[in-house]
Amino acid sequence: MSCLDIENKIKALDYCDFGIAFNCNYRCKMCHFWEEYNLNKDNVLPISKWKELLEQLMLIPRNESFMINISGPGETFLRKEIFEFIRYGRKLNFKMQIISNGSLIDERLAQEISDAGLELICFSLDSLNKKSHDFLRGADGARDKVLRAIENMKTFSGSTKMGINTVINKVNLNDIVELAQWVEDNRSVSHIHFQALHQPFTFFDSPDEEWFKQDKFQFLWPTDTKTINEVFEALIEFKRKGYKIVNSEKHLDALRAYFLNPLQFIRNNRCNLGKANVLIIDAPGNVSICHLTGIIGNIQDGRSLKEILSSPQANAHVKKINECKRNCHLVVSCYFEEE
After folding, report:
1. CA-to-CA distance for 109 and 104, rounded, in angstroms?
2. Which residues 6+ apart lie within 8 Å of 307 measured at CB?
3. Distance (Å, rounded) from C-alpha 198 to C-alpha 93?
4. What is the dihedral of CA 306, 277, 117, 75, to 10 degrees?
5. In this structure, are residues 277 and 8 in contact, taking their beta carbons and an 8 Å threshold?
6. Is residue 2 within 8 Å of 276, Cβ to Cβ?
7. Is the pLDDT confidence value at 269 over 80?
8. pLDDT (0 to 100) of residue 1
């Protein structure tokens, strides 16, 4: 039996997202956490508690490829104790990756990343076009800073692999092919992963399948059918040629289908998150498999992670996921699986 005691045998964990970061220095157009900021050092888990969670994960069944993703709703390297956490995770032999906007990675920080033993860092880079990337990230100089971070990592942290995460949207649609080619030609970057724009992250808005029709989001939603098709045809051809694109051909085609008809459900079967091989723990300690479905429990209520995952609430959470028919971004981008 795996981590959840439910009728369908659940696979061991493949992935756990630790939302350690709770502050951000950017104002991304695809994210509204910064606008509704209500997290601070007094209501998020301290690093000591995150280290305890690493120990508790040792008691949870995990697949050989299991990876801990360190993210937030914020920039990870703003949290000064992050290297203490990475070193402890590596001591316990966990594979760990960080998602970063790259703004803080100077020569010193790059060396610190290497010394801590981080396995992978994924930079958010939406375009090589300075105007496009800076606009999307809400910060002047954002493009230059992430490119500088890549160079610093190349020079001072050669043991840490580098990848690129890119959110495709109306602003950068015409820049995507050039970016994919740049990654292919850049020996320092191991891969690029494309995601489709989805309802901007927010604390308070409930999921809305027709969010893209709202006036405040229309500037992000691509509507040029011809360009959408051309861009994804180019990406699929790159994939066939062996380019460093993580997405499969079927995933790229699903992303295209989502942009062309976002209200059409892209899967025939239930959401694959119902297998419960993914775990999300956010900055205040809420535990979930799908945060859109709700939370199972909170680490700060005194229960261990194993107790939370063995609770009736966990069973109900998985059941609700398996019954869900929402065509949400988790199905489209983050946890896509071929049928």
Report:
1. 8
2. none
3. 34
4. -90
5. no
6. yes
7. no
8. 39
Q: How many residues does the chain have?
A: 339
Q: How many CB atoms lie within 10 A of CB 197?
A: 26
Residue 270 and residue 29: Cα distance in Å, rounded? 30
Strands (E), 71-188: 95-100, 120-124, 161-168
Q: Is 110 exposed, middle or buried (0-12, 13-18, 19+ CB in 10 A)?
A: buried
State how far the alpha carbon of 235 is from the alpha carbons of 132, 173, 184, 196, in Å.
Answer: 20, 12, 12, 13
From 243, 281, 248, select the one nearest 71 (Cα to Cα): 281
287-308 burial: b if 16+ Cβ within 10 Å, else e: bbbbeebebbbbbeeeeebeeb
Q: Please choose, from the candidates 115, 142, 121, the residue with its C-alpha nearest in 3D space to the C-alpha of residue 131.
A: 142
CA atoms 313, 314, 320, 325: torsion sign: positive
Q: What are phi and psi of 101, to 5 degrees?
A: -85, -5
pTM of the entire predicted model: 0.90
Residue-wise pLDDT for 173-219, tens only, equals: 999 999 999 999 999 999 999 998 877 665 445 567 777 888 878 89
Average pLDDT over residues 295-304: 93
Q: Which residue has the higher pLDDT, 117 or 208?
A: 117
> How crowded is residue 102: how many other Cβ atoms within 10 Å of its Cβ?
25
pLDDT at 268 over 60: no
8 A C-beta contact, residue 276 and residue 216: no
> What is the average per-residue pLDDT within 280-304?
90
Cα 36 from chain centre? 20
Other Cβ atoms less than 10 A from the Cβ of 278: the count is 20
For 66-99, what is each residue's pLDDT tens digit?
999 998 888 999 998 999 999 999 999 999 999 9
Confidence at residue 237, expressed as pLDDT on a 0 to 100 scale = 98
